[in-house]
Design goal:
- The chain has 79 residues and is of the alpha+beta class.
- Helix content is 35%, strand content 29%.
- It contains two helices and three strands.
- The two termini are 30 Å apart.
Length: 79
């Protein structure tokens, strides 16, 4: 799976997700993400201070994805 931001987007980014089988019958999920925060390094620094860490967000998202896949249930967003 891959994506690229549209021209003029607030954050210029490109990324991909790769799924590979592993020896124990599981699946390795690898994410590659490149982005340019608004205002360059200054914007990246401000985001870091405000607690917006893309690496941590990806790790958290992968952890939730694993939980859903391990549960073998379709998540519901209904309240």
């Amino acid at each position: 799976i891959s994506w690229r931001s549209l021209p003029g987007a607030d954050v210029d980014q490109v990324g991909s997700v790769h799924f590979s089988p592993v020896h124990n019958g599981g699946t390795e999920v690898r994410v590659i993400l490149r982005y340019a925060p608004p205002a360059g390094k200054l914007g990246g620094g401000v985001g870091h201070v405000l607690g917006e860490h893309p690496e941590q967000q990806v790790a958290d998202d992968l952890r939730r994805f694993k939980q859903v896949m391990d549960a073998r249930e379709v998540p519901s967003s209904a309240m």
